[in-house]
Hints:
Elements: H1 2-28, H2 30-33, H3 40-53, H4 55-76, H5 79-85, H6 90-93, H7 95-132, E1 151-158, E2 164-172, E3 181-192, E4 198-211, H8 214-217, E5 224-237, H9 260-288, H10 322-384, H11 391-416, H12 421-424, H13 427-444
Helix pairs in contact: 1-4, 3-7, 4-10, 4-11, 7-10, 9-10, 10-11, 10-13, 11-13
Amino acid sequence: MLIKAFALPLVVTFLIVQFILVMQFLWLYIDDLVGKGLEWWIIAELIFYASASFVPLALPLAILLASIMTLGTLSEHGELTAVKSSGISLLRFLRPLFALVFLICLLAFYFSDTVLPNSRLKFGSLLYDVQQKKPALAIKPGVFYKDIEGYSLMVRRRDADQQTVHDIIIYDRSSGGAYPRVTVARRGKFIHSQDQRFLTVRLEDGFTYTEQGASEAATTMNGESRILFRKQEIHLDLSQLKLRRSDESLFKDYYSMLNTRQLSKAIDSLQRDNQSRDSSLNDLILGQYHFGRKSAVETSEPLGIKPEATRPAVVEWSANDPDLIQEALRQIQTVKSYTDMKNREMRNRQELLARYIIEFHRKFSLSFACLLLFMVGAPLGAVIRKGGLGLPTVWAIGCFLVYHVISMSSEKLGRDGSLDPRWAMWVSSLFLLPLATWLLYRVNLDRKLTFKL
Length: 453
């Protein structure tokens, strides 16, 4: 009975949250989807892959809301009171739900480690192709259409059949010459091929005007030619307007598209590479320049620990020698510029390494968040004694916002290097864990919750 009472709110709230997030996605990328003539299955495929990326947000919130609703309904109807009066504690009563939520945690980890990287890979590849796709053929009267490579065309008027057009101007630059070939016709008709790859423009009563360059005009009487015609056909290739699918292997090394095994291998490789680069930089600077504790005149003992044979020779110099001073300043400036460049490079590499580490721990924190938010929601539902989507929704959104804001803030600090990236994804969980433990302890002992300011 308890699992059945919990499963229905869980499924319903999960679908509602997923729907809201999908609508937000469509609103965000509406400009990339509209006006490009995309088939419905392309948009459906894009939404399907995008919805998988919303599970890490929707699943913990759905578990939190469902636990508050379930325990709130049981407490409101007096069923939880009957259970406690029979000598059964809250923790013992919640054992079936703890087992179910633990199973969901295992499935969530499998999803984030296996399904989510593949869906992100396909989503990123398809979204890139959609963004790169040119708009569909939509020729508006009085406006030049320039998305067909090598051609620009305009019509003054278009009939209701959308095929017959009047007063057509076509600029042909496909030959690559210095001057385009201009075709003007009084009337025409657009005819698409069956596979929509080619557009045939049938023109009537017009002329083709070609202006010749200086080298061509020298051998003729004038520098232009004009050809009149009664009927003429121009074939335009529209294959470039179709959606071209990229190779998914181009995106597979991105950190959010890797599983835990691949992330672990990438983190190890990046750490080794950073250590190697740092060591090479130190060897290069210490091997070419002499660093002393005092001035070069007073001592020749370097700060770097190097064999005596490899230490550079110390040159005795006078403070009044301007050439040596300028040379020393030039070398100092060279070292400073080089180290600044290497420091920027190392900061970028450290930030990239932090992203890989954060993504590795994110897969585990998602599973733990499901269990943690259930530990928060179950005692809250027993306390507020309200079911439905009213008050439980307010409490659930409030608790989840606290968790999500802390998670986003700590993740940003981890990427910037202000916080150890190994702890960045666990700060929000460590913040709520004492609260969840305290709530379970108080409600299990049937004690009132008192908050002292």
